[in-house]
Design goal:
This protein is α+β, with helices and mostly antiparallel strands and 376 residues long. The protein is built from 12 helices and 14 strands.
Length: 376
């Protein structure tokens, strides 16, 4: 079979190889959605990725007979390890040809790097934060992917099992058809929430999000998501970076916040029209034509699916029907804009509160994905 060489990414040439490998691996896969190249590069740049202030990362590439055959990143998030009392090295950006020996060589490199840093377990696919893609796809390989989720071939899980990895957590995604009218249950619960708790939906401006509301939404998410597997809170510098990244492509109509009569944000939803086709056409680059594909999808001719990137409800307001106000607001807007489908990002399979909110919309559960673990 020839020789395998795994090396640390340490030069600009190495990084180019790391970033562009998936474009070759998935060139004939119509479901795959590439990352934007600059986003991947920025994830290793401390001036751009403020998560690196509390995280160590090391990227690796594997070559089989001199040809790139795989990539992976080792991630040690000290903040998450302290919170969860663990010594975990995470892995992310894992892509590989169908060659178990190459997979083994890549994981051996990350595990050895983890041991050098006194870690005792490896977990993944995970990123530094929950805004990074997570979870290896286990099924529904024929379904279109999106900009917020990992896509991988069906041989990936087989490699993991052969290498002795085990399940630590599973996520599922929800897909719903957007109804022509707000379901009566949502309308009734939304009305009660307004009357009993003095709640109302508010739409923000770009200026408001830049001048404080962006941080309010992320601080709310830090509260709401704190108990969830592997969650690591966002710092203000990270928040500002994500706001700057996503705000230019955001549609303010699709980002409702719920406030109480004191003006406190008690819930928020961040949703966005799918950019999957535009990103495929761009091949991960804004230039020379990627910017036009993205602009066209955002402003002129959007796709028929909206991505539900997050819904967060303040812990003391959870279970009180607050999310019904969000759905009551968004469903008419989705219809007006011509969206036919809504799809969530990965949601933990045991997060009953999150999953149960979709019941009035006859949800379809799909795209199960897994976080694996193994002792070092």
């Amino acid at each position: 079979m020839g020789s395998i060489l795994v090396k640390k990414v340490s030069t600009r040439k190495d990084l180019d190889e790391f970033v562009r490998f998936p474009l070759e691996l998935y060139k004939d896969c119509t479901q795959y959605v590439p990352d934007m190249e600059n986003d991947v590069r920025n994830s290793f740049n401390p001036e751009k990725n403020h998560g690196l202030s509390f995280t160590e990362v090391q990227a690796f590439i594997a070559q089989r007979d001199g040809i790139t055959a795989g990539r992976i990143t080792g991630i040690i998030n000290s903040r998450a390890n302290k919170k969860w009392n663990t010594k975990v090295v995470r892995f992310g950006y894992f892509d590989v040809i169908d060659d178990i020996e190459v997979s083994k060589a890549l994981f051996d490199a990350v595990m050895e790097w983890g041991r050098e840093h006194m870690m005792t377990e490896i977990q993944g696919p995970l990123g530094i934060t929950d805004f990074d893609k997570e979870g290896m796809l286990l099924e529904d390989y024929d379904r279109d992917s999106s900009m917020i989720e990992i896509y991988n071939y069906d041989y990936y899980p087989r490699h993991m099992e052969r290498l002795g990895f085990e399940k630590v957590a599973d996520w599922v995604q929800i897909r719903v058809g957007i109804p022509a009218e707000v379901p009566k249950r949502y309308a009734r619960v939304a009305s009660l929430s307004r009357e009993m708790y003095g709640l109302h939906v508010r739409k923000l401006t770009f200026k408001e999000i830049k001048n404080g509301y962006g941080r309010k939404i992320f601080h709310l998410m830090n509260e709401a998501y704190a108990p969830l597997f592997g969650y690591s809170a966002f710092s203000d510098k990270q928040i500002d970076y994500f706001v700057d990244m996503y705000l230019p492509i955001a549609d303010m109509d699709l980002i409702p916040v719920v406030e109480n009569d004191k003006g406190e944000v008690v819930a928020a939803a961040v949703t966005m029209g799918s950019l999957s086709n535009a990103m495929r056409k761009s091949k991960g680059r804004l230039f020379p034509l990627g910017w036009w594909y993205m602009l066209k999808a955002i402003k002129f001719k959007h796709e028929d699916t909206v991505n539900m990137m997050l819904i967060a409800v303040r812990p003391d307001m959870q279970g009180l029907g607050v999310n019904a106000l969000i759905f009551e607001d968004l469903i008419p807007i989705y219809n007006r804009k011509g969206y036919r489908w809504a799809e969530t990002g990965p949601q933990l399979e045991d997060n009953v509160k999150e999953l149960s909110q979709w019941k009035p919309l006859n949800p379809e559960t799909l795209k199960r994905r897994r976080c694996y673990c193994k002792k070092l």
